[in-house]
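In the design runs reported in the main text, the only information available to the sequence generator was the tokenized backbone. The following block is the verbatim input for one such run; it is reproduced so that readers can re-run the procedure and compare outputs position by position.
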């Protein structure tokens, strides 16, 4: 059953009041913590902030700081990126809502924001991607390096990743430079979306909307994983997977074939 607060959310994260409703609910949940030993963590990271953008900037600044870049400077960098591109904030909120909806271990909205490194890595990638597109590439690479060092997740800042993404556990995930991940995708730990070894051009997978990629799966090359397809844990995928199909094994084979789009064989990717 859908929790009552989700029934009041707009259907799309692009609607104007989505982030405001999301933030109000997260603050409400954070105020319910009655453990004195951790109340300050909820206060510093959620309750003391005026809006979600401020909280996100502060959290990422704290997580990504190192001896070469102080926390206040990183927090200002993230805050300015969020101010310049509000879509990053909406995407972050939609990722957290999606994680709450899909992950049985997620008890509320505050939990993934505070404690799930998959969420932290994904939002830090979104800042790095913004910097990459702004041609601030050394800085984007620095954030990529810090994400890898801090969370054990390696996402190239040029990769294109949609909204409502779930990264469960996350350790060992690798997402290459020309990877495209559409909306509503779920990735588990140790997934590799890798290249073909070509020096240039499209060489990484295209993951269509609604896919689930199981733990330890490797998708190697410029292949399309069709809409709502499922890739089993440990699978090694070396060819296209049709929409709504399930692929397992090494090398991966189709064990459940979805209703085929007649144009699938003619997709140009």
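Verbatim output:
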């Amino acid at each position: 059953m859908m929790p009552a607060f989700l029934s009041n959310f707009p259907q799309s994260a692009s609607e104007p009041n989505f982030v405001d409703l999301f933030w109000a609910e997260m603050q409400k949940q954070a105020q319910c913590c009655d453990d004195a030993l951790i109340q300050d963590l909820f206060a510093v990271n959620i309750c003391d902030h005026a809006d979600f953008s401020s909280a996100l900037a502060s959290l990422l600044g704290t997580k990504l700081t190192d001896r070469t870049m102080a926390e206040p400077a990183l927090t200002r960098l993230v805050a300015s990126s969020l101010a310049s591109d509000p879509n990053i904030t909406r995407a972050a909120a939609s990722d957290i809502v999606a994680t709450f909806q899909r992950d049985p271990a997620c008890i509320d909205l505050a939990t993934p924001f505070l404690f799930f490194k998959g969420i932290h890595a994904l939002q830090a990638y979104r800042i790095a991607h913004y910097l990459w597109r702004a041609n601030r590439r050394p800085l984007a690479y620095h954030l990529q390096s810090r994400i890898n060092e801090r969370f054990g997740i390696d996402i190239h800042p040029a990769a294109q990743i949609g909204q409502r993404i779930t990264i469960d556990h996350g350790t060992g995930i690798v997402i290459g430079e020309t990877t495209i991940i559409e909306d509503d995708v779920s990735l588990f730990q140790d997934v590799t979306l890798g290249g073909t070894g070509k020096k240039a051009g499209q060489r990484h997978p295209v993951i269509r909307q609604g896919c689930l990629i199981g733990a330890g799966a490797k998708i190697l090359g410029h292949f399309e994983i069709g809409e709502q397809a499922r890739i089993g844990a440990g699978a090694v995928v070396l060819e296209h997977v049709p929409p709504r199909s399930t692929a397992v094994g090494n090398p991966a084979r189709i064990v459940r074939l979805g209703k085929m789009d007649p144009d699938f064989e003619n997709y140009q990717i």
